[in-house]
Amino acid sequence: MSEVLTVAMPKGRIFEEAVELLRKAGYRLPEEFDDSRKLIIDVEEENLRFILAKPMDVPTYVEHGVADIGVAGKDVMIEEERDVYEVLDLKISECYLAVAGLPGYEKKDINPKVASKYPNLAAQYFKEQGEQVEMIKLNGSIELAPLIGLADRIVDIVSTGRTLKENGLVEFETIVPITSRLIVNPVSYRMKDEQIDRMVERLSGVVDGVEA
Ligand SMILES: Nc1ncnc2c1ncn2[C@@H]1O[C@H](COP(=O)(O)OP(=O)(O)OP(=O)(O)O)[C@@H](O)[C@H]1O
Ligand SMILES: O=P(O)(O)OC[C@H]1O[C@H](OP(=O)(O)OP(=O)(O)O)[C@H](O)[C@@H]1O
């Protein structure tokens, strides 16, 4: 009998899509997955243990090896720079990161302020653009920052564009397309390679058939 694989799943919007993907790949996940407040769910018949974490924390659990594998947005992967392998693009929770602000903004300030939930990623982006900015880290409702004068621009996720539009903001630049990824702890990949490869194989088989 093989060892149990621990999977770190992000709570929130990716969760449902990731569960759907696993079910399409043939994993029998109990109804508990659809409506539960439990943070650890054991699925003995599949030899899997799921832990439910905040999306930004998934790579931390995987890097520390308390989870063998995990599901994380590419945005989180770039921001967190954790020592994990990214083994599969799951092509779910599709969106992109963009720079946005109020219409008519012109780059003229010294050290203009940029608000984001992704301070490392945003700072790196502006550095590459040769622009020096002051980063302001926020944890959500990023679009509020330029409206209230906290920042000149924001770096945030855009999906339908509705949040920007309804708040009278416009997109200036696209930074990078985002989807969710399957990530693996490097030691787990050595110790449990067969089990992990099997999961990657099963998931890759359904990824392209799943609507992003
Ligand atoms: N509007 C969106 N449409 C599609 N995918 C998105 C959208 N916003 C974020 N994502 C993707 O989903 C992941 C998780 O987003 P979610 O909003 O569930 O987490 P969060 O903002 O960290 O959580 P919380 O709102 O609890 O702080 C992000 O890391 C990103 O990859
Ligand atoms: O282009 P849209 O389809 O409008 O989606 C984009 C919005 O979705 C995310 O916010 P979320 O709902 O996670 O709330 P948050 O701002 O609290 O993170 C993101 O931060 C944008 O605000």
From TrEMBL:
Q: In what residue span(s) does the ATP phosphoribosyltransferase catalytic domain sit?
A: 54-204
- Gene3D superfamilies this protein is in? Periplasmic binding protein-like II
Q: What is its main location?
A: cytoplasm
Give the main EC class: transferase
Asked if the Swiss-Prot or TrEMBL record annotates the protein with the keyword Cytoplasm, the reply is yes
Any one Pfam family match given in the protein's UniProt record, by short name: HisG
Q: Does the keyword ATP-binding apply?
A: yes
> Which reaction equation describes what this protein catalyses?
1-(5-phospho-beta-D-ribosyl)-ATP + diphosphate = 5-phospho-alpha-D-ribose 1-diphosphate + ATP
User: Which molecular function GO terms apply here?
Assistant: ATP binding; ATP phosphoribosyltransferase activity
Domain description: Lacks the C-terminal regulatory region which is replaced by HisZ.
Quaternary data: Heteromultimer composed of HisG and HisZ subunits.
Please identify the protein, giving its name as recorded: ATP phosphoribosyltransferase
Source organism (scientific name): Alkalihalophilus marmarensis DSM 21297
What's the encoding gene here? hisG
